[in-house]
Amino acid sequence: xxxxxxxxxxxxxxxxxxxxxxxxxxxxxxxxxxxxxxxxxxxxxxxxxxxxxxxxxxxxxxxxxxxxxxxxxxxxxxxxxxxxxxxxxxxxxxxxxxxxxxxxxxxxxxxxxxxxxxxxxxxxxxxxxxxxxxxxxxxxxxxxxxxxxxxxxxxxxx
Length: 158
Fold this sequence. Notes:
CATH topology: Small Protein B, Chain: A
CATH superfamily: Small protein B
Strand content: 25-35%
Helix content: 25-40%
Strand order of the largest sheet: 1-6-7-2-5-4-3
Shape: globular
Structural class: alpha+beta
Mean pLDDT: 85
Number of strands: 7
Low-confidence stretches: none
Radius of gyration: 18 Å
CATH class: Mainly Beta
Largest sheet: 7 strands, antiparallel
Number of helices: 4
CATH architecture: Beta Barrel
């Protein structure tokens, strides 16, 4: 019997599928996110968008900008602002590492997905990324289609 714990399926609230195409993904971090009650309820419906959002350091803290969490319809006047900056909860060492990568190496911090962990807490998966040029994107598409064809050939022969 192995002592490896099995990972429970996480409920993904928002996924940035375009990020892996537009950027070369480096190191990935898991961060907590400070949300209001209506934002959490709205996230559980799964209609949030993080496609054009990014994270940046401001006065020693990491903030998630331009993430769209729609209003929670049942909350009427107690609702939240849809595109407000949201604080990311990280350790100081992680924040400084992300900040140095952005300043020195010209990288950006991109959110990959927002999900709920097994304890029901909202988490953001962020990554240090470098933007791809259009010729790099074409190369990545070529490689991806070749991998798909190769897998198909191996399956058919197999």
